[in-house]
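Per reviewer request, we include the raw input and output of the structure prediction for the construct analysed in the revised manuscript.
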Amino acid sequence: MRVEIVAIGTELLLGQIQDTNSAWLGEQLAAAGIDSHFHQAVGDNPRRMVMALRTALSRSDAVIVCGGLGPTQDDITREAIAEVMNVALIVDEAIVDVIAQMFSSRGREMSENNRRQAEVPAGAAIIAQVRGTAPGLICPVGNKVVYAVPGVPYEMSEMFERAILPDLRSRIGDDDAAVIRSRVLRTWGSSESGLAEAVGPRFDHHATSGAGVTVAFLASGIEGIKVRLTAKAPTEAAAVALLDAEEAEVLALIEARYGDIVFGRDDETMEHAIAALLLERGMTLGLAESLTGGLIASRLVAVEGASAWFRGAIVSYATQVKHDLLGVPAGPVVSAAAAVAMAEGAARQLGSDVGLSVTGVAGPTTQDDQPAGTVFVGMALPGRPPETFELHLPGDRPRVRSYAAISALDTLRRALRSS
């Protein structure tokens, strides 16, 4: 069973709203083990909508259409589906009564144009509306089917779960039943092309083995590169077993090329990794931030229960604050010596076991004869000499600051793992 999603609305093409419906539907279909190979977006144009529907039906077994079921003149999904079905639209008076009652219960009178929402292609079944005025549709087209749901997300999701997913499952034979599961490995410190090269042997293996597993990459900017593993199998247990085996192979290849760059899985962020390591070691953390201006602290306190291991942060943006509060010696403040003094000062002033600091040049101008993108990370861990790391980060001012924040956290993560 292959399902295609068609999102309706000129506002989607103009970038005025984001198509969150297609993303949500894709996730739900995958969780149900149903393939969705294509997504389309089309404006409120009858000719192009009909073309989009016919294209979808030519390559998929079912189509889910989102949007265009409202009462206004540009809501023409019903007309487009009827043309594809080669049938007429018929007004269902029972739907009119439901809509009228909805308006009446709110102390309002139904507008005449709401009758358009009761127009149904001949032969279609109704998905009764419970959250809005527009009903959904289940429209047979030969041995295939078109589902139509409102574009309002909470109306769409309710209809999908109540009516569309059960109908899809009833159309899937036992031989086609499957489970699709994905796992994401989150990395920091490599390029997308480099990761693809490192994991290349797995692509070669899957091309010849037909193992039911795929590997893909997603460049996620300041959150690094994600490696997505997807498995399709007859059962949940079989899919998880495939993912476990594939993860072990992919991790071995990544570590052989880049070392310890995988910091989390699925929704585990860099700050979650830091939290787990500090809790495991019974340590607390104090920060001294300069160019990042509190970005690191903001990320850390987003983790639930951060007060158990995070003591606080000193945003020492001004040079004099670095000298007076953190004990940074006279001289350049964009330097290894300053970073070390800031880390030690943070641990001392905040009473933490670990001190972490960041100082550097976000740009666009130079500072202390250092070019934009130059960053020094300082670290003070118990039982080992203080350390400093020099980074050269790309991008404009916002990117340098964001890259510096996650790079500093990754530096701490690696140090904690090795301690």
